[in-house]
Design brief:
Pectate Lyase C-like, ten-stranded mixed sheet, globular
């Protein structure tokens, strides 16, 4: 006897099941076939995906009230970023909705709470973004293990909030903090990654190592990452990083290895960040062999320390430690470096068997209150050369003055009349271009103040200020300021209170 498929459908579910039914006569068979034809043509056909089957989409959602058995739609979001990582494909954006996401850093390989492993492609990056900015709060407890030095685990095992081993990934706009033995905020192990607009703070780091953002994008001697991609194309852009190394009394006083941003491979770039209150290391540390890297328009404050007559950490460090590579063509410009208690405001040095090239470019940085007196220090020989192996210098375009923050230590916009306004440069190291960001920390277009009738200069730092009205005869404004902010309105109360 002929048979036909009968499809059961509900407006709240997909086509849920089928079964074979005998066709009792020609007329009944035609009715069933007509129904099937109508369903195939109907706009309702397939319009309601299953709650539990993943949808084919460019946008997925995670919510603290979601469930990982859902399909990841806005109406039926997933619960965890870790599950989203298993489901996504190149070109997808994962929107993580406002809420508090808590847990324990328990990944057995990377000691992390979140580990992203699914890669995008060069023309189809995968983005994880909090909505709204800083609305998705990740607060993670460490796993209780103390951090041991291990060359295969830069983040150690005390606890990392987010470890990334996937290429072509963007991590954007999260609020990230740790408890207990957590040592790191975000740790990246591969090339082609952007870490943008995150607030990373209050990382206890009770061990020898720690950082707000740590990137080791490739194996040092092969200069490719774990997936075979060349080193680099890693960016830390517009992040606010503070209170790293907050565990009182438990950090080795001689380590100086708990830092705001720590990068250790070529082509890793640090732009428009605000980094402050890093008490046991460098606010920004490019170590090992960060050749052809960019450090521009950052605002850093209150870094490093003096303990038992020794200085540890400081403002910005560019260091060469590997004898197989030369650290050269590094750009360090337009940064505000203030209230520094460590070795130097900005340091360029050889450590161990490393080598420095002659084309590193340090220019147009503002320095203020550097306790050691070493505003910009260059150490062309290893420490074994003795106390005379370092020289203090002040490169062309440097500014030594109070940056005039709106509220010191809280609001890092600069006031009208700040010496940071219009004091920067658009120049980069030789054969490097595009080192000055087009926008500031707040996403405002940068402007330039002409220093003469024929010259224009960007400003310093990451910040903005409210510029006083111009009078006749004054140069016009058309570019960025030194620091993370451009001239403009002050931070909101939410920003100011962090």
């Amino acid at each position: 006897m002929p048979a036909a498929l009968l499809i059961a459908w509900s407006p709240n579910r997909a086509l849920t099941h089928t079964r074979l039914m005998p066709l009792r006569g020609f007329r009944n068979g035609m009715l069933v076939l007509s129904f099937l034809f109508w369903m195939a043509q109907s706009p309702l056909a397939g319009a309601q995906p299953s709650l539990h089957s993943a949808i084919s989409n460019k946008n997925y959602y995670v919510s603290e009230t979601g469930n990982d058995t859902n399909n990841g739609s806005r109406a039926h979001p997933w619960r965890t970023i870790q599950h989203a990582n298993k489901m996504v494909k190149p070109g997808v954006t994962v929107h993580v909705l406002a809420g508090l996401y808590t847990g324990i850093a328990s990944d057995s390989d990377y000691g992390s709470y979140i580990t992203t492993t699914t890669s995008g492609t060069p023309d189809a990056w995968i983005t994880y973004v909090a909505e709204p900015r800083w609305g998705a709060r990740i607060l993670v407890q460490g796993n209780g293990e103390m951090c041991l030095e291990n060359p295969n685990k830069e983040a150690c095992n005390g606890g990392t909030l987010w470890a990334n081993t996937a290429n072509f990934i963007i991590i954007r706009d999260f609020d990230i903090a740790g408890l207990g033995t957590v040592t790191h905020g975000i740790v990246n192990y591969v090339s082609n990654v952007k870490i943008i607009g995150n607030k990373i703070h209050d990382i206890p780091a009770p061990n020898k190592f720690g950082a707000g953002v740590n990137s080791t994008s490739c194996r040092l001697q092969t200069q490719v990452d774990m997936h075979g991609w060349p080193c680099g194309n890693v960016w830390a852009i517009g992040n606010m990083i503070y209170n790293i190394g907050t565990a009182a009394g438990s950090v080795s006083p001689t380590s100086g290895l708990i830092e705001g941003i720590y990068f250790s491979a070529p082509h890793e770039n640090v732009v428009n960040n605000i980094v402050f209150d890093i008490s046991n290391g460098w606010c920004i540390d490019l170590n090992h062999f960060d050749a052809q890297s960019i450090v521009t328009n950052n605002t850093i404050y209150n870094c490093g320390k003096l303990e038992n007559g020794n200085y540890f950490g400081g403002g910005i460090n560019i260091s060469s430690e590997e004898d197989f590579a030369v650290v050269d063509y590094v750009t360090v410009t337009n940064n505000i470096v203030a209230n520094i208690h460590g070795q130097a405001g900005i340091m360029e040095r050889i450590a161990g068997g490393g080598r420095l090239g002659p084309h590193n470019f340090f220019s147009h940085n503002l320095l203020f209150k550097v306790d050691s007196g070493q505003n910009v220090q260059t150490c062309w020989s290893p420490p074994s050369a003795g106390s005379g192996h370092c020289t203090n210098r002040l490169p062309a375009g440097s500014v030594v003055a109070d940056p005039q923050f709106a509220v010191e230590g809280v609001d890092f916009h600069v006031k009208p009349g700040s010496p940071a306004i219009g004091a920067g440069t658009t120049d980069c190291a030789l054969n490097v271009s595009g080192c000055v960001p087009e926008t500031d920390f707040d996403g405002q277009k940068r402007t330039v103040r002409a220093s003469s009738a024929s010259a224009e200069s960007p400003g310093l730092g990451a910040g903005r200020a409210t510029r006083a009205p111009q009078t006749a005869g004054q140069p016009t404004s058309s570019g960025p300021s030194i620091g993370a902010y451009e001239p403009g309105a002050p931070l909101t109360a939410a920003h100011a209170s962090r």
